[in-house]
Here is the input.
Amino acid sequence: MTPAGCELCEQPGGLLLWRDDFCRVVRVASEEFPAFCRVVLMRHVREMTDLATPERERLMRVVFACEQALRELVGPDKVNLASLGNQTPHLHWHVIARFADDSRFPDPVWATPRRPGARRVAPDEHALGAALARLLA
Ligand SMILES: [Zn+2]
Here is the structure.
């Protein structure tokens, strides 16, 4: 089911890094948080508990591979995992590398900035894609 007006049914939601027939991993275009990925289920489902148990495990395996890839490539102080979907009720996980000197740390990336954050470059998309392919092989 692909409801009209669902952003994640109509667009990738970022630069595509890895995909299979179940889910995809994209890098989100964010200047402030350049090591920000999203794991997006290919079909339109609202909640984790709408998935059968093996599918939940399959999705989390990709989320954890994404966390591991970001740790290897950018060495963050923390990785934030979040599943909100309040505005886009299409199951997706945010996987966000955080640094103690980013603009909002230790608050969530959606909070009000505390400081001008240190600038970082985005991890190379080919390196991220290769790390995901290796971790998910
Ligand atoms: Zn959707």
User: Anything to note?
Assistant: The CA atoms of residues 103 and 115 lie 5 Å apart. The chain has a mean pLDDT of 96. Residues 3, 6, 8-9, 44, 90 surround zinc ion (CB under 6 Å).
